[in-house]
Amino acid sequence: MTNASIRARFAPAPTGMMHLGNVRTALMNYIFTQQKKGTFILRIEDTDQQRNYDPNAEKIIEDLTWLGIHYEEGPIKGGPHKPYFQSLRSGIYQEKLAELFNKGRAYRCFCTQEDLEKKRERQIALKTAPRYDRACLNLSEHQINEQLEKKTPFIWRIKLDREGTISIIDMAHGKMTFDLKNFSDFPLTRQDETATFMFANFVDDVMMGMTHVIRGEDHLTNTAGQAMLYLAFDAPLPIFWHLPIICNIEGKKLSKRDFGFSLRDLKDAGYLPEAICNYLAIIGSSFKEEIMSLQELSRIFNFENMHTTGHIKYDVEKLQWINRKWITIYDDAALSLHCLPYLLETYPNAKKLEQAAVIRLVQMIKTDLTTLKDVVQALRFYFEKPTVTHQDIAAMINAQNAVILSNIVAHALQIIGDATAFVNMLKASSKAQNIPLKETFTFMRMALTGTAMGPGIAELIEMLGVDEATRRLKSVLE
User: With contact defined as beta carbons under 8 Å apart, do 286 and 300 qualify?
Assistant: First the structure.
């Protein structure tokens, strides 16, 4: 197989917001096809119209674009295997179902859900593996016609060969063999005649020429049944990779109760798309250099040596560390654009600022940010003049030193227009009066920002402007 012929897909169901498992699946398909110079396809599994949260997959496409994950074939872009929405492919599924029936590998099942549930409960009570008992497999043509005349609802099931085994190749697990006696004749359709996930997924993967199927470990139980479908149609099996399930710190599958379960959580909290992709690509693995772009990940990711663990733990602290690293190396102009929505939400006056001013403000405090949302607190002093009392300063600085510092600052204000000279005068005067520079800078930051931590004094004067910095200092001195 040439690399150019490698094809992999991300096939989400638009039944809810993108969660981290979705993102990681899309990411690993993308990185794999990028490295192998193959084709990455987006296909939307929207057959469950009642739960369709995202019509036309607009949010899915928006999220992928935001993450920097770009597909070559799919909705909007089109491609040689359109349509890329399963809801528009029902005719194709019916054709393939007819083929399977003509091969003697599919049959109608008239069992009601109530019947199936009773049988399942009995099997569990008898401590046998619950699976369909093939009650409808050997119905005569007369019996089938009777049910059809009565318009009895039915579904189509595949007829499995339970005597043998079937093997697949998984990039992490290697060769995996399944004993088919442990599997049921699974449904191919629902009672409304729409194709089930198992069948539609298989048909689309075959018709779209998928050479690799990269998806979550939770789909491993589907794989044997789908492999049987490949054999039934004499289609070549793809190579699989079942990604470990992302769990919370307690080892339980990540749920909506866990922060960061959805991509929207992380986006709203101020995580950069590069940091999210970076984290999800390296989670559960070991890399010499951990901060990598998508292009770097695509180049160095080792797809020949996969981990076989079924679960990996989601560590918010590690994600925060990676996000902080990305913020420090991010282009200042691009970072300011990411930060601006958070500023506008809290400080409407921010819209009056020119782009260059926003860039400079963010540049000054970027080392204090863990997430983009931290910009709101980091720049609060700029948009809201702090109220600083003598008690506030007394809590941070020796009372006698505070009096001396007031005189030093009052004297130095005459040259505040030259911020560097102003700071040098503060240093020299403090040293002469035996006042620790830490106290001097704490005094200044308290007066200018209301907090003891933050940018340097010269930077604060530049950010606030000489006039505003002077007003704040005089307010405290008076």
Answer: no
Degrees, nearest 5: CA angle 268-273-278: 130
CB-based burial label for 33 (10 Å; 0-12, 13-18, 19+): buried
The DSSP code sequence of 391-412 is HHHHTTS-HHHHHHHHHHHHHH
- Token digits for 391? 């008690």
At position 409, the amino acid (one-letter code) is: V
Q: What DSSP character marks residue 253? A: B
The pLDDT value recorded for residue 3 is 61
Model confidence pLDDT, tens digit, residues 413-425: 999 999 999 999 9
Task: Please tell me the predicted confidence (pLDDT) of residue 470.
Answer: 95
Q: Which residue has the tokens 């307690």?
A: 250
Cα-based distances in Å from 114 to 2, 59, 159, 248 = 50, 37, 22, 36
Instruction: Supply the pLDDT for residue 251.
Output: 80
Q: Which residues of the chain fall short of a pLDDT of 70?
A: 1-4, 307-308, 310
C-alpha 31/C-alpha 12 separation (Å) is 17
Please answer whether residues 119 and 133 qualify as being in contact, where contact means their C-beta atoms are separated by less than 8 angstroms.
yes
Structure tokens at 213: 């199927």
Residue 32 gets the label, from left (phi > 0), alpha (psi -120 to 50) or beta, of: alpha
In order of 66, 296, 368, 388, 439, the CA distances from 292 in angstroms are: 17, 6, 21, 43, 40
Q: Which two tokens stand for residue 15?
A: 């039944």
Written as one letter, the residue type at 186 is: F
Q: Are strands 245-247 and 7-10 parallel, antiparallel or unpaired?
A: unpaired
Q: What is the dihedral of CA 344, 451, 360, 268, to 10 degrees?
A: -40
Q: What is the pLDDT of residues 6-39, one digit of tens each?
A: 999 999 999 888 899 999 999 999 999 999 999 9
Distances (CA, A) of 53 to 21, 59, 67, 86, 406: 18, 9, 20, 15, 61
Name residue 155's beta-bridge partners: 109
**Peptide bond connecting 83 to the previous residue in cis, omega within 30 degrees of 0:** yes
Give the strand pairing for 106-109 and 155-158: antiparallel
**pLDDT given at position 221:** 84
Q: Which pLDDT value is given to residue 276? A: 97
